[in-house]
Amino acid sequence: MVERARRPHRLIGMEYCLGDGDGSATIWSAAPDIDLNSDGALDAVGLDFDGDGLLDDAMADLDADGVADHLVRDHLSDAAYFTDDGTGTWVVSLDRGGSLRWFGLDGVEHSGGAVVDVDADGQVDDRLLDVNGDGLADRAVSAEHAFVDTDGDGRWDIKLSDGDADGKADGADEL
User: Fold this and answer.
1) Which residue in 30, 95, 131, 143 is a FRET match for 72, CA 20 to 30 A apart?
2) 58 with 107, same domain?
3) In Å, how far are 53, 59, 61, 69, 116 from 77, measured between CA atoms?
4) Which of 84, 116, 137 is the last residue of a domain?
5) In terms of residue numbers, what domain contains 144?
6) Residue-wise pLDDT tens for the chain (175 aa)?
7) Per the domain annotation, does 30 fall within a domain?
8) How many structural domains does the chain have?
């Protein structure tokens, strides 16, 4: 049996949306010009988010669906990755290493990586997100539920559930 080498998916264009600072937003479309994940295919658009005058920041489409799913600051040096958490909010991602502080349902403080066991069910399947970049997890998401810290005190305030497994919350319970 002869195997053919797989060619990386070639992305023709990518859409991304950025706020304009006045409450409005603009949708942009651009052809990728950076190979961010080093797979041989262009998957990101170089921009200057942090205002340092360098095109060392990027919007990336790492799942190749034509929509930006990662914002990367300083990809040429000490990269910080942010992901769209599904609500259109860019949150600090720990995909590339790092640690966040978070509280278990019993109120005990922990620190850990991107995937932990927030609900103490014995399964390490809850993904931590830091919306405001303060190093304290604001959300924890798994396939069945999500926890949200609504007041920024580090404790989970709401548990969202997805009873029909369609990826959208069906119920919310205060904790």
Assistant:
1) 143
2) no
3) 15, 16, 20, 20, 28
4) 84
5) 100-174
6) 333 333 344 446 777 777 766 777 778 788 888 887 777 878 888 888 878 888 888 888 766 677 777 788 888 877 777 776 555 566 665 555 556 788 887 788 888 766 778 877 888 777 777 766 677 888 887 767 888 888 888 788 888 888 777 767 788 888 8
7) yes
8) 2
